[in-house]
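Per reviewer request, we include the raw input and output of the structure prediction for the construct analysed in the revised manuscript.
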Amino acid sequence: MGMNFLQLWSIMKPICEILILWWVFYRILLFFQGTRAFQVLKGITYLAIMFLVAQLLGLHTLNWLLMQFFAISILAMVILFQQELRQGLARLGRGHFFNLFLEESDLLAGIQEISDAAFKLSDKKTGALIAIERETKLTMYVESGVQIDAIVSSELTQAVFKHESPIHDGGVVLCGQRLAAAACLFPLTDNQNLSKIIGTRHRAALGLTEHTDAVVVLVSEETGEVSVACDGKFIPVTGIERLQHILKDLLIVHSKVKK
């Protein structure tokens, strides 16, 4: 019996090690996704594969060179990507790192705050651009703006977009329950079929949704109209209840499907 267990464990042990290493590597990729370090990490992954191939083929000189490179690269990554590491560890400390999705009640509360802010800004014809993160990390856009990192609320969102506010230009990025940053710069759409009268704010909303899976709530400064951009398309909004329904479909239903 003892021997059978030992034999079974000798077979299962490498499988367990591979699964654990795969899970750790996957979490590391999620940790850096959306940051400058992500592309570097992909490059190091390719070099790691080369390292394993060199070991299997007995290429000792190449093996030695790659070992020296990895030793230096670890220190270089710590120095070059201090900001990304701090942000990632902060997420880990808040407990979001291991939670892929917010609870439905948290999402509903956020949707209510966003919807309320959008239509109050609409009544005043105050332009707004509110990007909501989904699967694709918006870290690079957060870094382009002014860091806020506060619980999202209607009052805070309205205050950001007031004309008197020094950070009303650009967009805000919502990550989970938090308003991560304001005055963020979004890429403009490459769609050549848009009308020439479509403004920069609308082009930025479409551009971001073409590059990421974000959902963007948009308030037009000229007309006060509220719309939602997703997957490079605009979804018209006729009222606050309609906006809440759209956001529930795009955020809550999307989250459940991913689960």
